[in-house]
Structure formats: C-alpha cells, structure tokens
Amino acid sequence: MKQILYAIIAAIVLFSPDFAHAIRIKEIASFDGVRDNQLIGYGLVVGLNGTGDGNQVKFQVQSLVNALERMGVTINRADVTVKNVAAVMVTATLPPYSKQGMKIDVLVSSMGDAKSIAGGTLLMTPLKGADGQVYAVAQGAVSTNSFSYGGQAAAAQKNHPTSGRVPEGALVERELPNVLKERAQLKLNLQQPDFTTAARITAAINEKFNAPVATSADAGSVVLTIPPAYEGRTVEFIAAMERLDVRPDGVAKVVLNERTGTIVMGENVRLSSVAVSHGNLTLLIRETPQVSQPSPLSKTGETVVVPRTQLKVSEEAGGLALVREGASIGEVIRALNALGVTPRDLIGIMQAIRAAGALQAELVII
User: Could you tell me if 161 and 147 are in contact, meaning their C-beta atoms sit under 8 angstroms apart?
Assistant: First the structure.
C-alpha cells in the first residue's frame, strides 16, 4: 500500500504547476455544431450454425419473410422455422464531415434469444439518424472475437457471442450539412466549462491574430469573428487557431471511489491548518468450549461443557500529523503517509477533513 501512496506522490510532483504543460485548443474545445451523430437500424444476421433465434421469437421470422418477398420469393409465414437467422439492432457513429462513400464501423447486437451470432453475415441494413433520414447502409461479416460451445452438462464461453462488429461495414450515403460554411462568426465550446480557461483562450487567440477576434461569451464558450484577412479561408483560420497552446484551469477536486479504494486529487487542492490522528482498534473474541466428563466405568458424575473465552484487544499506534494551512496535496499525502494509512483509510480521512471544513476542494464520491 505504501508503494501506491509513493506512486501518488510521484504523479503529483510530475503534474505540479512547475511541470504543467500547455494543451492545444483543439484538445479542450470544439466548434458548435461539429459533433458525432448516432445512427441506428434493424437488420438480420444470417448464416448461423443453429445458434440463431428460437421459435419463441416471432419478429425475426416476419422480417425474414418480408425480406424474401422484396426479392420476389413468396412464402407462407407459418411454414418458416429457422435457427440460422437472428434479429439484431445495428448502431454506428457518424463522424462530422463524413463524405459519401466513406466507410464506418458498426456494432451488431442480438435482440432475441440467439446463442451466438459468430460467423454470421449482416444483411443490408439502412441506418437512420434522429431525424429519420437514412445516412448510411450497413452490410458484411460479423466479427465477435468470442465463442460459445456446450453440451448437456457443460458449456464454455468467451466474451459476448451475441454482440459483434462489422469493421468498415457501413457506407455513408448522406452527408451532414457544413455548419461552418459561409459564417462570419464561429462559436467555440469548451469541454470543461471554466471562466479562467475561457479567458486564457480568448487572450491567446487575440494575441495570435493581433486583433479582438475572440470574446468570452460565458464560462463554456468563446465567440470568434473571422478576421478580414481570412475571409473565404475559414479552414485556414481554424487550423491556425486550434494549434495555439493554452493551459486549462479547473475547480480543485478530490475524487474518491469507495468500491476500489481509488483516490484522485487535483493539483489545486489545498488544506487549512488541521491535525489528523489515525489508529485502528482490533477486538478478537474466540470461543473454545471444553467438555468435562467422568472417567470410564465411573458410577457417579456427569458430562459438563465448560465455556472458555479468549479475549484479545490490540490498538495500532495512531500518531498525530499536523498539516499546515496552504499545504499542497503532495505535502498532505506525505503527512498522512507518516501515519501508515492505506488508500481505503485515506478515503475516510479525507471525508473527515472535508467535514471539518479544512479541505479547500470539491469532494466527489463515486
């Protein structure tokens, strides 16, 4: 456990303000309207070796009959009983500025009671956006990177055989509109809204172009006016702007995960003067009853159970550590490490320090 605390201290030193590096604007912000779009569709996976949907799933049979009818094959639905077909939901993410003919990956997930879709082929499936328009069409062999085999008494399975991917299985058929084309103003949205970060971005952009190009609208966005020198050259302006380095700021936070004992602390965490004492009390009670009985061939006496209780109390030596006002998080960890605390003990200590009003940071428990 001490190695873990030493690793935390080392990470704090590496990411302290003296070692902090600036980050490009393109890593911490994005333009309004330039984002991914979710696509979804319903399809069929065929070619399964008896691992498809069973007779309890009705919509898979109806979908198969409809697909055959569109191909000119008329068949009675009541006569269809197949286990090589599985009904699936197909999802994909359409990146911004995707052009017609580009290929994107799709995720295929079983909807019924199919045992496995490994080795199957996804039939042509239209993928629609939230507006109901078809933006891509998916088809191809499904790759699950899994297996599922079994008999009557035993079975073996790896990963999830009812979910897989079709790499580059969808072709883009409809392009998204260009939201940045022929616009005099652009809006830059911060991934982590913060007034200081927005002000630094604004200052860096204005210094780069030597003009009041950027203005901070609020903590989450910066409004950009395209300079006259870049009229008709929006792409060049964005390329020059997003390469600028800015050091982002944020609220001091301490994140605690009680399930795993994980603790993450930001570099801006500070403490007021506080004294911390830590010690564990261990109480061990062991019952070992003994039986007392008369000797063999004895005419008198009776068997008696005599209780025996062992009691042991041990208390760890809990020292008292003083953390002075304004101490950095590295100094806090060193002080608590001197008490011999474990990461899980540190979670309780940090909560107690917060309750005492000495932790100058936001405490987040996940």
Answer: yes
Give the DSSP H/E element, type plus range, for residue 298. Answer: none
On whether the CB atoms of residues 145 and 159 are closer than 8 A, the answer is: yes
Under DSSP, is residue 174 helix (H, G, I), strand (E, B) or coil? coil
- What is the pLDDT, as a whole number, of residue 15? 44
- What whole-number distance in Å separates Cα of residue 131 and Cα of residue 159? 34
> Per the structure block, which two tokens stand in for 20?
């902090």
Residue 99 has pLDDT above 50, yes or no: yes
What domains can be seen in the chain, in order of their start residue? 23-33+179-246 (3.30.70), 37-146+155-172 (no CATH), 253-291+305-365 (no CATH)
Q: In whole angstroms, what is the distance from residue 250 CA to residue 267 CA?
A: 10
User: How far is 64 from 69, CA to CA, in rounded Å?
Assistant: 9
Closest CA to 332 of 353, 355, 357: 353
339/245: higher pLDDT = 245
The pTM of this model reads 0.67
